[in-house]
Amino acid sequence: MSAYRCGTVGITGRPNVGKSSLINRLIGQKLTIVSPKAQTTRHLVSAILTTEDAQLVFVDAPGRPPRTRSALHRMLGRRAGQAARDCDVALLVVEALRLQAGDLDAIAAIPAAQRVVVAVNKVDRVRDPARLLPFLERLSKLRDFEAIVPVSARTGKNLPTLLRVLKDALPEGPAIYPTDQLTDRDERFFAAELLREKLFYALGEELPYRCEVSIDAFRMARGLRRVDATILVERESQKGIVVGHGGETLKRVARAARRDMERLFGGKVFLNVWVKVRANWTDDLRVLRQLGYSG
Length: 295
Ligand SMILES: Nc1nc2c(ncn2[C@@H]2O[C@H](COP(=O)(O)OP(=O)(O)OP(=O)(O)O)[C@@H](O)[C@H]2O)c(=O)[nH]1
Ligand SMILES: [Mg+2]
Fold this sequence. Notes:
By secondary structure, the chain is of the alpha/beta class.
């Protein structure tokens, strides 16, 4: 029998290529939030996959923001590169047939000595398979990769191959997390993230980037989780949009978030949500630190 392997897999790639979707599909649980909009992920989240012969610790990370606009963007930019630096193997995610400047930036930010596996995601969208081979060839010239695997987070195509390649690239060693542990984050963190994800779906193009969620209280009482959350926005007018006509938008967002929390936590949740204005929170270092953005 081959030796047990264990290590960290740091995700990198431009925004919206499906990094978080891929992790969720590999783990088989929604641990990291996903949306059709770029820059959904803001935090480093570990998702742990334990199998009979290996433990893989996937570290999800934000895609590299295109421009350095606010203090929040600068922090996200630092996190984008960090996961691929501080890991045993980097997993670069690109979109099939869509190589852009952001992909090249992500590749350039990976240290030369780092092992890199490439997942060419969203192959379910490729209409003409003949175009895939030249694309893979073009990719292979960009850097010395351990492997390039065409996959689909949506259909699950080729994910067993991707897992095998990643396992082979990990060092030998015993599991570092208990075998039933799925993540390094607590329920409080997921409560905030799931609520933030619903804002990405409910609000227009710009507003999700002006919103953040903080959890004011998280208590367990007689089998019920009571969660008090605040959605921060930057302006009074934004608060109006988040609350919506007759409070409809906020109600819808809270209901969807509560359902996801109940699914993830496996129990009933009572969720209270407020909306507060914190002018310029995306540029306020003190507020950003309170929200868990550091460095
Ligand atoms: N068709 C198709 N869509 C996918 C696939 N994987 C992800 N998507 C979609 O791509 C969009 C972005 O997915 P995310 O997982 O949030 O992407 P990300 O790279 O984590 O994005 P950021 O966190 O913003 O950097 C979502 O709408 C997903 O449903 C796939 O294999 N096929
Ligand atoms: Mg993401």
